[in-house]
Design goal:
Two copies of one chain form a homodimer.
Chain A (H helix, E strand, L loop, with lengths): L2 E7 L3 H12 L1 H8 L2 E8 L16 E2 L3 H4 L4 E6 L7 H10 L3 E4 L2 H18 L3 E2 L10 H8 L5 E7 L2 H13 L3 H10 L8 H4 L2 H15 L9 E2 L7 H9 L2 E11 L4 E11 L11 E8 L3 E8 L3 H21 L27 E11 L4 H11 L4 E6 L7 E8 L2 E2 H11 L10 E5 L11
Parallel strand pairs in A: 1-2, 1-4, 2-3, 4-5, 5-6, 8-10, 10-17
Antiparallel strand pairs in A: 7-9, 7-11, 9-10, 11-12, 13-15, 13-16, 13-17, 14-15
Helix pairs in contact in A: 1-12, 4-5, 5-10, 7-8, 13-14
Chain lengths: 442, 442
């Protein structure tokens, strides 16, 4: 049985997951692949700490040349994370004609074009199933399973920490701070969870995914990104009263000349299948012109889930190597010549519905002043709730709007926040619902 | 650009969907594939009827040899359905060295082993993504995306008609008959919906899917199959009171020496993500030893959704042909030698929880007689409801059991149904919940 040699750079959580799967499921992997996957070298600056898996310590070294200089190693797995030295190592591996597997969404979001360009020229593959949605076979589904489709829209719950926090706030009325502390205790959140809760991680993943879905060289920096730190239990309660759940959603649509791509807390109808994605789970909801609505759901992170995706990528590359056909599927779904350079649709021009919560001083004329300003900017109100007692001299007034233009809404809120009857900040949450053919999204 | 020629046998709904996708998305398919997919011949006994798509009438013929004898045609798509002549045509195409794409779950469930054996010997591929779950990239996910996993269990909502009927019964309190009539009016159900509602179609799909998931030559005839015809609105209402929804579920588990595989109406917790799969949608929930829980969701049928899967299969086969590597992934996920011949776990030995609804005559001692018989067979009761007034001289008594053995439950019910205080038939619905590590299923 042929043996395919693999080198691993970065022996952290996911690397240990990969090792455990290669060990535990060795027979099954060989039955499916018809070849052996052998981990020949591990490179990590930390060669002494205990790790949660058994492995041959003699293959662990801090010296990356042990992988780069070994011509037997056909595939390099990069699991360091971050920009450097990950980028340098990946580019060197490519230069040496080795295929690459990575889970590094931050690197791909920011430097993906350079990496894929290098791989394309050197005729090697870069696989990255573990970079988005953990073990969910999402990248493969977009590149192959849904390949016959023009993808119209893609919505994602892509950060398990944020989803866990929002779920706890929804189900138990927890505050953001308590829920986040709990997520950290359970090991879902990073030691520094900034990129989880501020939307950065979700935006990285959206960039990686949307490029494949729309055959576009989408620029990560153009994605509007807003996190969940400002969400209060009160907003979640009001959302529920209106029939919504609050999710940190990656939203993208093919708009022809541009790509809509944004990340922010979003209210979605409670009975939508995405609303049932709770806890640390991730999901991506895709609409294709042929397939209609599809959703893929699973754990978005973790040693074994991400390890599952890494090993699936290894098996894919091993099949390519066994058959002598690298880049069987184009790296970014489409031929390079067909990848378009469309800009991200300007956030100011987005049209959606809005949830707006004002902290109003309980004086006569508040409602008329607020609604007057909204009306003067063509923002029409679909529902109003004033509920609950005065706290610290203010009462919450919640308005839902019909579809309005983002720029108009922002300018209206800026003006409203200068009123002496309102106590800023006013809270704004976008709503996705109701305009697709099924009463949902298109 | 290289051209791959395709022959289509059977110009029905899905065939028309395939034609429309090949036409509408021609540019996109070429960008992704780097080759042209050209439909060269269509064979159908009906060469005159109007069809919902435009196509070149001159390529339509009733003579299947127009495809079989054409050496340029590398891939044959079989979309006739049923056993014959589909089987003969597929075997002939294989014999001639042509790859096959089919959506025929009934044929694969019953004659799959013969077909795959022939394809294996002739070194051609048989692809069947459209046979289960319409356009959901399910088969590809099991064979490739989740290839690193030992799959422990697979649960499926695999028949859109049944799910539509149960959803209408749940959401609107409709009767089975009215809901089915509505499904037929909407075009979800076949003219003869027998195989949809009696579980046969779901069992076909379970056989096809479970063989891949467990690398097993599972025998279709051994799958216990029960449909939804006996479900009454009353049962759905009681289920809801207990926190459950009723779904026609395909249930399978790897039990080591055997494979658990059964199809029947099943109560699942309302807040489980599978419970949110409503209307004509399908979903498969898979637990892998590495990936954890994964769910794939989408439309399980229809011209365009199934067409999406057929064209994805065509693109996959075209990539294999372009690279000269047939059977890149083993036809049934595993090498032939690794496929086990494990039997289906005996239904009598299944242990699960049960919902049992008795129609009791309102006389003293009914409860004690029923619970006495249950207790004597080691069936312990976790909840009892007696609710609602007497209709036609009987009142419904509902009991939920703790986990019990199927055989014991059946024998107890047989005995109970002979009591003069009970008016048969007693209704039994199995429950899936609560025994996995997450409070759900393992």
């Amino acid at each position: 049985m042929r043996e395919i040699y693999v080198g691993l750079i970065g022996l952290g959580t996911v690397g240990c997951g990969m090792i455990r799967i290669l060990d535990d499921n060795r027979d099954l992997i060989e039955d499916r692949l018809g070849a052996k996957l052998t981990l020949k070298r591990i490179v990590d600056i930390d060669t002494t700490s205990e790790r949660p898996v058994e492995f041959d310590r003699s293959i662990l070294t801090p010296d990356v040349s042990a992988i780069m200089d070994d011509p037997e190693i056909e595939i390099v797995v990069e699991l360091i994370g971050g920009y450097e030295p990950a980028k340098t190592f990946i580019l060197e591996a490519i230069e040496r004609g080795k295929h690459v597997v990575t889970a590094n969404k931050a690197l791909l979001a920011v430097h993906g074009p350079q990496i894929f360009d290098a791989a394309h020229k050197r005729k090697v593959s870069v696989q990255f199933e573990a970079s988005v949605g953990g073990g969910i076979p999402l990248i493969k589904s977009i590149r192959e399973g849904l390949a016959a489709n023009r993808i119209g829209a893609l919505y994602g719950i892509l950060n398990g920490t944020s989803n866990y926090v929002l779920t706890r706030m929804t189900e138990e009325g927890a505050t953001f701070e308590d829920a986040l502390a709990e997520a950290q205790k359970k090991g879902y959140a990073e030691a520094d969870p900034t990129f989880d809760v501020d939307g950065t991680d979700t935006a990285h993943k959206l960039a990686v995914t949307a490029r494949l879905a729309y055959c576009s060289s989408l620029r990560y920096e153009e994605i509007y990104t807003e996190g969940i730190t400002g969400i209060e239990p009160l907003d979640i309660q009001f959302a529920s009263d209106f029939g919504y759940k609050v999710k940190l959603l990656a939203v993208s649509r093919d708009r022809g000349d541009s790509i809509e791509a944004r990340v922010h807390p979003t209210m979605i109808p409670k009975d939508h299948v995405l609303a049932s994605v709770s806890g640390a789970f991730n999901a991506v909801f895709i609409t294709g012109d042929a397939v209609g609505d599809v959703m893929l759901y699973g754990l978005g992170a973790g040693m074994m889930a991400a390890g599952s995706a890494v090993v699936a990528d290894l098996m894919d590359l091993a099949r390519d190597n066994l058959s002598g056909v690298p880049q069987r599927v184009p790296l970014l779904t489409c031929r390079t010549a067909a990848i378009s350079d469309r800009p991200v649709f300007p956030m100011d021009e987005i049209r959606t519905s809005y949830y707006i919560r004002f902290s109003a001083k309980d004086r006569p004329g508040v409602l008329s002043k607020i609604s007057g300003i909204l009306g003067s900017r063509n923002i029409s109100i679909s529902a109003v709730i004033q509920k609950g007692r005065e706290i610290a001299g203010v009462v919450p007034i919640v308005m839902l709007t019909h579809e309005a233009r983002e720029k108009d809404v922002r300018e209206a809120l800026k003006e409203i926040d200068t009123l002496d009857v309102v106590s800023p900040p006013t809270r704004l949450i976008r709503i996705e619902s109701g305009d697709g053919p099924e009463g949902y999204w298109l």
